[in-house]
Amino acid sequence: xxxxxxxxxxxxxxxxxxxxxxxxxxxxxxxxxxxxxxxxxxxxxxxxxxxxxxxxxxxxxxxxxxxxxxxxxxxxxxxxxxxxxx
Length: 86
Prior knowledge:
By secondary structure, the chain is mainly alpha-helical. It has three helices and two strands, in the order H-E-H-H-E. It has helices spanning 7-27, 45-49, 58-69, and strands at residues 36-39, 80-83. The chain has a two-stranded parallel ribbon with strand order 1-2. The radius of gyration is 15 Å and the shape is flat.
């Protein structure tokens, strides 16, 4: 989500989502899927040290990656997949 002081960060995130959508469309007929994973704050030691709490455990993000790489997600292409804490 946009926030004050984050113009560069937010613009780069928007650019990545658009790039993934374009790659997904350009290579759909080649059997190549492209999605983005959009986690909230990630629960890492560095983020906890910075005072951030309630983040997404990295293992939860990995499960989403594993799902998107599998046959079960064959119809998911060009999506921005949010990942928030359970």
